[in-house]
Amino acid sequence: MHRVALVLGILGGLFWLSLPFYPSECVPVTGASEVFCNRLWTPALLAMLTGAAGLCWLLRPRASRSVRWSLLAMTIGFAMMAAGNGLEYWVAFELPHQGGIGGKIRGLLWMTALAGWLVALVAACVAGVGLYRGATGFALPRWPSLLFVLPLPLTLVFAALGPTWAGGIPVGLLGVLIGLYGLALPTRPSESPRPTMRVPASAPRAGTSVIRHSVVIPFPLEKLWGLMIKPERMAEWNTEIPEVLDIAGPMDRIGGGYRQVWRFAGRRMVSPGLWLVTAVEPLRYRDFRGITPMGPMVARDWFQSVEGGTRLTIEVEYTPPGGALGRPLDPLLRAMFRRTVARNGRALAALLAREQREPK
């Protein structure tokens, strides 16, 4: 359904872009054609509103909180434009432009449309920056998201230097961009092909460090896997994460994930983007990516049945703080990582033992 909304957004943007040139009665707009010509704005704005709502809905489960709020604000901006224009030229069109209560009503409706215009452009700019910086779980290059930044400065340039009719062009371009960006995304992240098992010997990429540590959990692989794929239960055994937010699905499929919350020095910190599974082979391996207080990170888990339980190998690949200058901190980070994995392993074993004693 959201794809229909995105197509309507594109059509609305294209229709909006045609209005400075067609129909002939509106080139230019005269006093006699004002109502007719401005009524044409309404279906274009409603269609672009539909496209903005479709993109907002599509990215809602996976985008960062700032992006979600920005997309919502952009949608509200289009709603304000459509409401202001529609009410003025479809309901209050017989009221005078100036003087009396009629002038005040039309002035309020016009200001509503202008305020919505500004809200939509500013929110699109913020959303574009957020989409560029954060992960959404979709296989799409990041650079197209920066196109959302362009309508705001283009509007200012056209308003200052271009002809009057050119000032509205960026809004139509935004409507088209919203639809094209949304249609370029797959229906859901899990449509990506399932990867094969990877060899647990990862060579670090240039400029990154890799830390790996293993623990043996004295429980069958299936029970350990079944517990660790549930992000809603992570706070029960992960000693570094007191809570998780914005769960996007279980961690046994591509696109499943959550938003991490840390506590450091008494301060609550929330990851700016979701931790999302990017590769998985059930009961054997998973790869997921996200952002920590240290920056972007890749984590990999391997599960192997061994005598006495399950060997859990956890690996993280990260960029040292400060780049090359942060390399001397690697031994300290490795020691902290080993302690954390050991604590989490004990917590997992204790939780599974408690569940075995007290089955639900």
What is the oligomeric state here?
A: single chain
Total number of strands? 8
Q: From the alpha-carbon coordinates, what is the Rg to the nearest angstrom?
A: 26 Å
Indicate the overall shape. Answer: elongated
Q: What is the percentage of strand-forming residues?
A: 15-25%
Which segments are poorly predicted (pLDDT under 50) over 5 or more consecutive residues?
188-201
Name the helix and strand elements from N-terminus to C-terminus, one letter apiece.
HHHHHHHEHEEEEEEEH
- Name the helicity range: 40-55%
Distance between the termini: 39 Å
Task: Classify the secondary structure makeup into a structural class.
Answer: alpha+beta
Mean pLDDT value: 84
How many distinct helices?
9
Main sheet characteristics: 8 strands, antiparallel
Can you tell me about this structure?
This protein is an alpha+beta fold and 360 residues long. 46% of the residues lie in helices and 18% in strands. It has helices spanning 2-18, 34-39, 41-59, 65-90, 100-133, 151-161, 169-184, 221-228, 330-357, and strands spanning 209-217, 243-249, 257-264, 267-270, 275-281, 285-292, 295-306, 309-318. Strands 1, 2, 3, 4, 5, 6, 7 and 8 form an eight-stranded antiparallel sheet that branches. α3 (41-59) runs antiparallel to α4 (65-90) and α3 (41-59) packs parallel to α7. The chain is elongated, with a radius of gyration of 26 Å.
